Amino acid sequence: MPSRPPSLIKPKPRKAWAHSKPSPRLRGRAGVADRRSILSDEPLCRTCVKAGRVTAATVVDHIVPLSEGGSDDRSNKQPLCTPCHDAKSKAERAAAQTRGVGRKSRA
Question: Is the separation of the CB atoms in 59 and 85 below 8 Å?
């Protein structure tokens, strides 16, 4: 028996968080060059500078995480030292858990 023509096949429902287009995130050599450029333009940790400390930045962080709708533009990136990045990431994970983002159902 023949299958249905493609025009009559119902599309599978998408997950609420699934994007129809791939993220325009810089990857590979372009991403490495972008991070290198940001760290050379702003070599100190932005959080430490605000606190009056002088610490070399080692990580480029998204101010608004990509998972929360942040962009991969330069305006959404900041240089941080590893301890500040770890603290920010830990706080973001804790906030996501209280909102229920990323929890798996136990059904």
Answer: yes
